[in-house]
Specification:
This protein has helices spanning about 10-15, 20-25, 35-45, 85, 95-105, 145-160, 170-185, 225-230, 235-245, and strands at about 70-75, 125-130, 165-170, 200-205, 215-220. It has about 250 residues and is an alpha/beta fold. It starts with 8 loop residues before the first helix and ends in a 6-residue tail after the last helix. This is Type-5 uracil-DNA glycosylase.
Length: about 250
């Protein structure tokens, strides 16, 4: 077995990463979940007619944004023909169109569209990541895949800890996956764990007496939510704006 295929690969490599860029690079080599590896690579080979001629990334997708972000956005997993194609979180799909338009409205992104890596998109004080870094079949990672991938998110939180002051979690799956990673990253998560809800807000104290963290819940920017009106642009910008202000980012 190649070391990147061992279930312990994320644990070892995340713990040993001394910076966010190093962690991001190590994420891209992970092959610890066989089902996800097979799926992401098959999607990359087969593609989709709309993206004919596009060379898919078809690897784990690392977080995107500055390594000293004050606000962290946590989704679910890369989309098969979105991040799995472009190699950047929430880039090249409808969910990303909604998210980055909201960040641009708030002055937290320099452009409203995310087309491909290298398109010039920059985020101000915000970083985007997910608890599962590979595109899963039907957008549904298994609990085991979620747990295997958790060290990457815990490591990212550990490295962001000097600057991060707020987290927005998109969707119930991300909420359930993120709370244990926050506990591993150095914040005290209450028992029973707080329930997810749009507009939920929980204050987590640091276990070492350092700065605390505000965690916000928001419906996921999936097409099912945005097309049906369950999540409107106004609802999204309200949550993101409140979180950004809490993090000290002064959105417009």
């Amino acid at each position: 077995m190649d070391e990147t295929e061992h279930p312990g690969f994320p644990v070892r490599e995340a713990a040993g990463a001394g910076s966010v860029p190093v962690l991001d690079e190590r994420v891209t080599h992970c092959r610890a979940c066989p089902r996800l590896v097979e799926w992401r690579e098959r999607v990359g080979r087969e593609g989709r007619r709309a993206y004919a001629g596009w060379e898919y990334w078809a690897r784990p997708v690392p977080g995107f944004g500055p390594p000293d972000a004050a606000l962290l956005l946590v989704g679910l997993a890369p989309a098969a023909h979105g991040g799995n194609r472009t190699g950047r979180m929430f880039t090249g799909d409808r969910s990303g169109d909604v998210l980055f338009a909201a960040l641009h409205t708030l002055g937290l992104a320099n452009r409203a569209e995310a087309v491909r890596a290298g398109d010039g998109l920059r985020l101000r004080g915000v970083r985007v990541t997910s608890p599962v870094h590979c595109a899963p079949p039907e957008n549904k990672p298994t609990p085991g895949e979620r747990d295997t991938c958790r060290p990457w998110l815990a490591g990212e939180l550990r490295l962001l800890r000097p600057t991060v002051r707020a987290v927005v979690v998109l969707g119930a799956f991300g909420w359930q996956a993120t709370l244990p990673a926050l506990a591993a990253g150095g914040w005290a998560v209450p028992r029973p764990r707080p329930a997810f809800g749009h507009g939920a807000r929980v204050r987590l104290p640091a276990t070492d007496g350092g700065p605390g963290l505000d965690v916000f819940g928001c419906y996921h920017v999936s097409q099912r939510n945005t097309f049906t009106g369950r999540l409107t642009p106004e609802m999204l910008t309200d949550v993101l704006g409140e979180a950004a202000r809490t993090a000290g980012l002064d959105p417009r």
